[in-house]
Amino acid sequence: MVKHEVSDLVVKQFSRQHYCVVFNQRTGFFARIEESKHEEPFWSWHGPELLDIAITNWCDRECAICYRSSNQNGKHMPVHNYEIIMQQAQYMHVFQVALGGGNPNQHPEFCDILRLTREKYGIVPSYTTNGRGLTEEVLLASKKYCGAVAVSAYSPYEEMADAISLLTEYGIKTNVHFVLDSYSISTALNWLATPPEFLNNVNAIVFLNYKPVGRCKDQTLLLRNSDVIAQFFKTATSRKYHFKVGFDSCLVSGLVRFSNIPEIFYEGCDASRFSMFISENLKMYPCSFMVADYDGIPIQDGNMLETWHRGELFVQIRETLAAGHRQNCAHAKTCLGGCPVFEEINLCSNRETKRL
Q1: Which of 75, 100, 123, 274 has its Cα between 20 and 30 A from that of 49?
Q2: Which CA distances in Å does 190 have to 180, 193, 195, 284?
Q3: Mean pLDDT of the 244-251 span
Q4: What is the spatial distance between Cα 34 and Cα 125, in angstroms, rounded to a whole number?
Q5: Under a CB-based contact definition with an 8 Å cutoff, are residues 101 and 53 in contact?
Q6: What is the pTM of this model?
């Protein structure tokens, strides 16, 4: 591996897999560039490019739809445990960490975690907040160290709007994370048709596919039960807005089916290929939505890379995605068969419902 760094631009070359990564730590631009006569890698041997880390499962909002079932009894990850992760993350050439929870910015040592991530380990942190606990100390640390901050969209949206206002006043790149289900899709369509004022200064709104896990397992909320799903994807992808519109990889099957976006812009599931989730109790999973139903692999000194390569869950997810890649479907190479864990969230037609 060869690393070149010019100001905010980081370029790392991974010769064994014949590709390099270009990452702008200021703008968030990220690209994999394969060498001539070589394909983009299916997964990164060096380790995950992104770590999704729950530094706490504490939250005083206790939303009905929370996939982690977070509450006021949730535990905080000690900073010395966080450093165990970061030491190995640095060795694996992790570029970014997405801090979550619970509500991560209400971790009592949150600002220290941001500082350590950026200054000591050279990794760019971002986080998702429910909008509470944005003290001046948190806001200043976020501006100094974070790539971006996402605010979760929860009805009735006043707290979200206040949080957006605070973050943007401090000049922090701010996104909105919107969980899309058969009920909330109507609100999403209204926002796209006539963007509300609180979206004026956001960088992007990112839509996330609802999964029936955690505190809410209501099958009627599955997006496939909506009768306006085609209209949503057409509206979201055919108009230009003053903010960016993004989708998590769990919606790739919907994009393939209902939009005309060139497939070069799609990204299949990254779990165990380019990303990993770590829970507040130091267990590793390919994806954060697996925590409730699967046993994670405990972190020990120096075992993260070994787990990335040979951990049973990680190998199983990669094999499932690779099999999806080979399906007899014109779009299989793009969507990798959709979500390998929650088959019922996939939006392809004529799909059987089954679990990994």
Answers
A1: 75
A2: 13, 5, 7, 38
A3: 95
A4: 26
A5: no
A6: 0.93
